[in-house]
Amino acid sequence: MSIPDEAHADIKLFYEYWRSITPEGRLPGRQHFDPISIPQLLSNLWLIEVHREPLRFWRRLVGSKIEEFAGMSLTGGWVGDRLSGARLSGVHSFLMDVVETKRPN
Fold first, then answer.
1. Eight-class DSSP state of 49
2. What are the DSSP E strand ranges found in the chain?
3. What confidence tens digit (pLDDT) does each residue in 75-89 have?
């Protein structure tokens, strides 16, 4: 995976950070992530835990700009607890892509 030259500088910074913390063949876990390393990006990030059996996604941390856009606090809780229908399906598909490819999206 590569980032286009015209991508925003923050996207490039996040991608490089993701690459630097990702264990071979796995997704990075909370133990790999150090918020102090990318403080300028935190307000726009989601930190999602992947739970298996059954497969579910927990919102561990949701950046302040995302919560401001949503108009509510989203940190803590299952991804599906505030969504339904097509929106839930789209978010679930998006997160499944990250899990399956082990790449940021």
1. E
2. 46-51, 56-62
3. 999 998 988 899 999
